[in-house]
Amino acid sequence: MDDINFNSDKLVIMTYQRGAGGKFLINCLGLSKDAVLQDKDLAQKDLEGTLTPEDKFNLLIERINKIEDKWNDLGLGCYQLLGVHDQLFRKEFSKEERKKCYRDVVKLLSNSNKLFFIVQHRVDWVEDIVNEWPNAKVVAVDHSYEFARSRPGYHHLESGLDDMKNEWVDQIPYDADFRFNANEFNSKHHTLKNIQKLYKTFGLTDYNEEYISLFYDAWFQKVFSVTRR
User: Fold this and answer.
1) What is the reported pTM?
2) What is the CATH number for 174?
3) Dihedral through CA 137, CA 100, CA 30, CA 59, nearest 10?
4) Domain total for the chain?
5) pLDDT reported for residue 72
6) Do residues 213 and 52 lie in contact, with contact meaning Cβ atoms separated by under 8 Å?
7) Spatial distance between the Cα atoms of 44 and 56, rounded to a whole number of angstroms
8) Residue 1 counted as domain residue
9) Which pLDDT belongs to residue 162?
């Protein structure tokens, strides 16, 4: 098996304040045949060609419908896919230490043509991921305070601070490849148009408005009816 290709241009860093909808954007991109959802087993099936966009859509809808009272990110995330998460990019962790944590599927993904994703809530740590993955792309979700605070369980947020005690950044200070205004999540029309632009930005040719429209409806209804984890 090849080693991890840290020069891959298929890693997408999604940076956003907690509660601002970044995972929704990742899942919408993950519906493409040329991207994976944040789970190692699902990614492996995707690489093998045994998981279709329809399969992924049905899985997302099934999982979102099972949520009763607390949001759970649909059981998908950086650890589930990569074996690492944003906290491992703190200064005290070395690249060699992280390499021991990366799952085997990362080797395959980094040498493939499929997009894969990592989340970074701390905008001041985005550069640390880019230093490790110099050709990674960055999507920044800006203007997220009002949208996040309107969700159940996020009402305690105060202007200037988030729950991790770092500064609340309205405009993420990074030269992102794509910017999404979180306030536009309140408009289905604007959300779908922006996701279509995201597909074009990353060269994904199979934007499926029916799937994404139905997923948006299920997600938007659910995140405003359940509390945070």
Assistant:
1) 0.91
2) 3.40.50
3) -160
4) 1
5) 93
6) no
7) 13
8) no
9) 47
